[in-house]
Amino acid sequence: MIKSEITTIRIERSVLNELKKIKRYPRETYSETILNLIKNAEEAKELGIFLQKAQKERMKKLWEEGDYSGWERA
């Protein structure tokens, strides 16, 4: 088993209170909570990239067809 290195970080009390609110269960560590937030942020970023690519393809098709009215529906 690899021993983890532990560090101390300083955060505002308000941030700590927000972390407490989003714990999935009472004994979840703050490290677990923060890792969960990071995972969610990465998934949201990947979804955003996917949606941008899909929108880009749709707009490319509209431009090729000469139909510029699709901007509001893209």
Q: What structural category arises from helix and sheet content?
A: mainly alpha
Order of helices and strands: HH
**Beta content:** under 5%
Number of domains: 1
Average residue-wise pLDDT: 85
Instruction: State the low-pLDDT regions, or none.
Output: none
Q: Termini separation (Å)? A: 51 Å
Q: Provide a count of the helices.
A: 2
Question: Could you estimate the helical fraction of the residues in percent?
Answer: 55-70%
Shape category: elongated
Largest sheet: none
Q: Whole-number radius of gyration?
A: 21 Å
Based on DSSP secondary structure assignment, what is the total number of beta strands? 0
List the SSEs and their pairings.
Elements lengths: L12 H10 L7 H36 L9
Overall description:
This protein is mainly α. The protein has one domain (13-73). The protein has helices at residues 13-22, 30-65. The longest helix is centred in the middle third of the chain and has 36 residues, at 30-65.
